[in-house]
Amino acid sequence: MPTTRRDLLLRASIAAGTALLPIYGQRLLAQPRFAAHPFTLGIASGDPEADGVVLWTRLAPSPLDDHGGMPAEAVAVGWEVAEDEAFSRVAGQGTAWALPQAAHSVHVEVQGLRPDRVYYYRFHTAGETSGTGRTRTAPALDADVQALRYAFTACQHYETGYYGAYRQLVADDPALVLFLGDYIYERPGRDRGPRRHPDEHAANLASYRRRHALYKTDPDLQAAHAAAPWLTIWDDHEVENNYSGDVSQDGGDSPSFLVRRAAAYQAYYEHMPLRRRSIPVGPQMQLHRSLVWGNLARFQMLDARQYRDGRPCPDMSPDRKTVSGCAERLDPSRSMLGSEQERWLFGELAGSNARWNVIGQQFAMAESSQVDPQTGDPRFGVDGWDGYPAARDRILAFLRDARISNPVVIGGNSHAFIASELSLHPEGPVIAPAFVGGSLSSTSGSASDDLLRKAPQMRFAETQRHGYSIVDVTPKSSMLTMRAAADATDPRTTTSTLRTFAIESGVPGFRD
Ligand SMILES: [Fe+2]
Q1: Torsion angle, alpha carbons of 373, 379, 382, 384, to 10
Q2: What residues pair up with 96 in beta bridges, in sequence order?
Q3: Which of 20, 202, 312, 383 has the fewest beta carbons closer than 10 A?
Q4: What's the gap in Å between 413 CA and the centre of ligand 1?
Q5: What spacing in Å lies between the alpha carbon of 468 and ligand 1's midpoint?
Q6: Could you tell me the end-to-end alpha-carbon distance of the chain, in angstroms, rounded to an integer?
Q7: Contact, 133 vs 434, CB < 8 A?
Q8: 191-218, pLDDT tens digit by residue?
Q9: How far, in Å, is the centroid of ligand 1 from the Cα of 444?
Q10: ∠ CA 9-14-15 to the nearest 5 degrees?
């Protein structure tokens, strides 16, 4: 790394004030008293392993005010984990510190639990008790597992819809919920849809915290977090629309963008049930990780934002979204994941003993293009994998050549339900099925038929419905069920099955 770049990162880190300081030297609030209930943002759990899970909460008696209405002092928070909902068989307990420099968020990495078990958890502080959450541990690494039900979704724009579909997700009782990006949207209020953002861009630490707090006040989202452990990755809107690595959508490798990114990553960490490995260091934060579910499934969760190269031929795409006739787009040195994460992904997949290898990332992945009306040449989007086609081909070729067992790609970003069959060439053999499990509430301006016309590998698209997908995995098959809200703008909406896809072990692609 050249010195200038390193200095830039360091300066960004200092400017954003993101270092998480140790407790020594803190002002401690010995006997805290809050004017209101401090657990207004709910509770959550995440990143389960065979012996434990992360428990999360954030103290915020006045959630939309600066600092959540908390004093600039450290507060002790008690936590409990039990085998039963009445907390009569306690499996673990302790005290964690909610620190002002982490927005009084609490991340407890519980250890010593038994594998493949349901647990209940709650927090206490200042005589107040949080709601009770339900979570579970993963099976032992070498366990012979016969069944897993997981859910995935993405894109929960607060303004364009309610989160009613989460009520059905809770009723579906998945062991694990994967959220694939756009947990928040950074833009100010646009006055369309049933709800409204505040009239500010989320662009610094205080405003990103306010935006996360606003989203976390939603009761259906809180209930979904309280029902199962989540495994979350981000996309662009947790920071800024269509950013690429250290480049803002407006272009320029600017120190001010890295300061903004550091603030956004910090607020993201503060509001998600993430392990210590994800504590941000300035504008850098490790989010890509693996989760093993015995011998049945392995999840590779990718970060296609932080390490990517900038968009190709920026001068040729005045709309910032598409390019035509851009040779740089095809440059094999261009990377979506960064070379380190790409090597890590291939190493993890090569070492996997799982029957099913789920790749959780941000996009639909299938190639998509439209004919340029002026030149007749194809035009490609630059924000998704079409801006990085060589990197996509490397992944598909690896899955094929290393004979990875039952790869399944899942993604978000498209604001649609999508089912595709990925191949290296238009008429080539199918290498892996790829699904976008719906947007929870974010809307799309595209018609379903338009999407299908542009992408020959897509076999199903629905852009006007919103929801999530449930996947029932056994050694023999993965059954993917798309569930859509009747009306995402109705807070009391019902949710029903939209479409079902069957993937048989050993057979790339799907039946519907
Ligand atoms: Fe989105």
Answers
A1: 120
A2: 77
A3: 20
A4: 5
A5: 13
A6: 49
A7: no
A8: 789 999 999 999 999 999 999 999 999 9
A9: 9
A10: 95
- How far apart, in whole angstroms, are the C-alpha atoms of residue 316 and residue 311? 11
- List, as one string, the DSSP characters of 20-69: ---STTPPEESS---SS-S-TT-EEEEEEETTEEEEEEE--SSTTSGGGG
Tell which residue, 195, 277, 192, 271, has the closest CA to residue 234.
Answer: 271
Ligand 1 mean position to 184 CA, how many Å?
A: 9
Q: What structural domains does the chain harbor?
A: 31-134 (2.60.40.380), 147-504 (3.60.21.70)
Q: Distance, CA 410 to ligand 1 centroid (Å)?
A: 14
**Centre of ligand 1 from the C-alpha of residue 17, in Å:** 28
For ligand 1, the distance from its centroid to the CA atom of residue 237, given in whole angstroms, is 7
Residue position matching structure tokens 């956004």? 264
CA of 165 from ligand 1 middle (Å) equals 16
pTM over 0.85: yes
List, for residues 27-50, the tens digit of each pLDDT value.
666 667 888 999 999 999 999 999
Query: How remote is the CA of residue 152 from the centroid of ligand 1, in Å?
Result: 14
- Quote the ligand 1 centre to 145 CA distance (angstroms): 34
